[in-house]
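User: Okay, second chain of the day. Same drill as before: sequence in, structure tokens out.
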Amino acid sequence: MAVDDRVCAVVVTYNRRALLSECLTAVRAQTRGVDALVVVDNASTDGTAQMVAEEFQDAILVKLAQNEGSAGGFHEGMRAALGSGLRWQWVMDDDTMPRPDALERLFAARERLDGLPEPVMLYSKVLWTDGRMHPMNFPGFRMSDPHLFISGVEQGLPPLRWATFPSLLLRSDAVERYGPPRKGYFLWSDDIDFTARILRSEAGYFVPDSVAIHKTATAHWPWEGGDRFYFAVRNGLWTLRGDALAGHEKIGHALLIAGQIRRFLPHERFRPSALGIAARGLRDGLLRRP
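Assistant: Same drill. Structure tokens below.
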């Protein structure tokens, strides 16, 4: 194993002890093992910290004083992984179950670049429990350079424009250059903003033969998220106002947000509470800063 291929897994958890144990067991069972493991506990109250200390004694446990959401958890987890000095970070939620060869296949993808730019990010195919692509984990592809896109597809490595956190392998130096996820996002779109910032000028690829199962309770779209749809609107607008997207990409992103609201309201039967969720998301996304 080359020194430059050493990897630290980063797992963020909140009150899902049983799922976390299953996730960490899957991480430990990889055909290409990890060299360090960071677990970020978002102030769980279900005995998570004790379970990690007893069953995964070599893990670095980062216990947060309060629940800082996905964004805060990965922010602190990536910072802790930087402290390990390892070149790669493999990040995921506590309900992500990577198949045994998922990490091996992510690293093996670099062997078929065949002239493609070296990646700072590699992303697995993320499925739900029934074998479908998980609707919350579709990647965005770089379509602005047709030659690069076609070359990537020919190598089985479509170039990424953004990705989500389940089974995302990224280089630590990219975290150092661009910073970790922005804590203010708390939940949803933190990973889109984070990866899109990096991939504006760096290379990353989707690796479809590396597979992880995202064991969420349901396989829902953002507009089916109930109260949480507030974060989809607010954080989507924050990303629109930020530095992750180029000017021409912001047009499409604005249309995406509008389309999600258009689906959310009828899904919620235009209840006053749903109108309030969308209105608060619009207000905070436009008037506040992350």
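The first strand starts at residue 7 and ends at 13.

User: Thanks, on to the next one.
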